[in-house]
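Hey, resending since the last one bounced:
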Amino acid sequence: MTISIGILGAAGRMGRAIAAAAEEAGVTVAGGLDREGVVSGGPADAQALAAAADVLIDFSLPEALEGNLALAVETGTPLLIGTTGLQPEHHAAIDRAAEHVAILQTANTSLGVNVLRGLVEQAARILGADWDIEIVEMHHRHKLDSPSGTALLLGASANVGRGAASTTDLNRFDRMQEGAHAREEGGIYYASLRGGSVAGDHQVIFAAEGERIELGHRAENRGIFAKGALRGAQWLAGKPAGRYAMADALGFR
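The structure tokens again:
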């Protein structure tokens, strides 16, 4: 399906990667909007850009989300959100906007990571609370949010597998803040590393007495996320209002 996309956060690392992937795939880029609100490579203003695009792709910043949602709703343009570091209030805003326009929100557009999510959920369901779960992630030195959105995505999958009431019930982030203390049985613990130019490494460790299972994914470059974003955008074009996930776009559910 041939579509035209508008890139929100066009000057960022992912914005540039998406533009490059679109050129390679023959997808039309209607234009881009950077963090200063400057539109490039297309119409003169944000509203005209959104109206010219079949789908908007947002890899900007959490503080820009409200305005980007309003733009999508105003023009009726489907929106794919890959921005990470989102808080509960951001997700509530997405829910409200999804009543009026199609929105696909995900912390990771990689096909491999979305397959990993399913494996983690299945392993957590089969192994149960007797197995400790540790999630370790590493990203480039410039990444600000911690744990990464993908780490939280994997933790949510483990929570679902264990039958938790919510996707965050068993998450534990307090190991460093509270000092030395016993590991809480059933808790899902996180560790974040930052350095160099790492595009994204994630490892989910299931550990029990005498044995260990390690499930992981390494992103060698941002191109995999850009390609996944384009695949998600092509699927999202023309969809009715609602909130969607990469699992929908990839046919996993």
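The two ends are 21 Å apart (CA to CA).

Sorry for the duplicate.
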